[in-house]
Design goal:
By secondary structure, the protein is α+β, with helices and mostly antiparallel strands. The chain has a domain at 10-152: Spore Coat Polysaccharide Biosynthesis Protein SpsA, Chain A, CATH 3.90.550.10. The chain is built from nine helices and five strands, in the order αββαβαβαβααααα. It has helices at 10-18, 39-44, 71-90, 118-128, 149-169, 180-195, 197-214, 217-242, 248-271; strands at residues 25-29, 34-35, 52-62, 100-104, 132-144. The protein has a five-stranded mixed β-sheet with strand order 1-4-3-5-2. Helix 3 packs across helix 9 (248-271), helix 5 (149-169) packs across helix 6 and helix 7 packs across helix 8. The radius of gyration is 20 Å and the shape is globular.
């Protein structure tokens, strides 16, 4: 009934579906995820609070049988989930993950058809109108990690490009006089990560190198040694990845550096206008580790 043969992107499907939705609360999820049995009840209970406009569930990543660099994806989402928990306790989650989130139907507004991160903008439009986004870790969506690092890099570049687009389209959230707490969270958690974080990493390394060469050994030489060790571990993780060898200790710094590289690529992709709103389906592992 809602199917169309053209490939027009996820947001077109959302627009078609939302014209028929009459429920007070709408839940969004992805086709490749599985939800825990209590997920909907856990999301719904927060709407007793009239200040809550949206509820974000937790994304959990299951690592496939080969513990390659995509193992960093699972650790990254554990870290991201912790930040969401803290954000929610302080005031509001800064954007919901599309794997599982809900919103009051009365607050839903269509987003432009070329929106890349529809889940992020849909949820943040709610926050922009003065409502909180609450985090509910007992409602979770589980999916397998990307098949390999190349697939994960493709996803991260798209997300980074969508992040720049989101910053451009949500300028009001940058105003700390209107949103004192939310702006602090948004800029600290999202804006800096999607814009200057990788460049500041390079600046920090270059500055530390200059200070180590001209200043006292402590603390500058020690800090430089720590940076060299970390990036050396990332290079070792890359080396092992090309040979399909397992070492999670090295894959985590490798994944971290890959994410920041994706930000640079994503900025270039957005500025060049080469990022489509339609997803290129990422290949994911098919066997989960027990």
């Amino acid at each position: 009934m809602l199917h169309t043969p053209e490939r027009r992107g996820k947001i077109h499907a959302i627009h078609r579906a939302m014209r028929r939705v009459t429920a007070d609360v709408v839940v969004f999820t992805d086709a490749n995820t599985s939800l825990n049995p209590e997920a909907l009840k856990r999301l719904a209970r927060h709407y007793q609070d009239p200040t809550v406009g949206a509820v974000s569930g937790e994304k959990r990543v299951a690592i496939g049988e080969r513990a390659d660099a995509t193992a960093g994806e699972g650790m990254y989402w554990k870290y991201e989930s912790t930040l969401k928990k803290w954000d929610s306790e302080l005031y509001s989650v800064v954007g919901a993950a599309g794997e599982l989130f809900s919103v009051r139907r009365s607050l839903y507004r269509d987003v432009p058809d070329d929106t890349i991160l529809d889940d992020f903008i849909l949820s943040m439009q709610t926050a922009e109108r003065g409502y909180r986004i609450v985090y509910e870790p007992e409602a979770y969506a589980r999916e397998l990690s990307s098949e390999n690092v190349a697939e994960e890099l493709k996803r991260k570049i798209r997300i980074a490009a969508g992040g720049i687009q989101s910053i451009v389209r949500l300028p009001g959230l940058l105003n700390p006089f209107r949103y004192p707490v939310l702006s602090f969270q948004y800029i600290g958690h999202r804006v800096l990560r999607w814009t200057v974080a990788p460049f500041l990493m390079l600046l920090a390394f270059g500055t530390n190198l200059a200070l180590a060469l001209t200043g006292p050994a402590f603390p500058y030489a020690w800090l430089l040694a720590g940076q060299v060790l970390f990036y050396g571990m990332a290079l070792a993780g890359l080396f092992l990845e090309t040979r399909q060898l397992k070492n999670k200790v090295l894959f985590v710094p490798y994944y971290f550096c890959m994410m920041n590289y994706a930000v640079v690529r994503g900025i270039g992709r957005y500025l060049s206008g080469r990022q489509s709103a339609a997803w290129d389906k990422a290949k994911r592992k098919t066997v989960e580790t027990s």
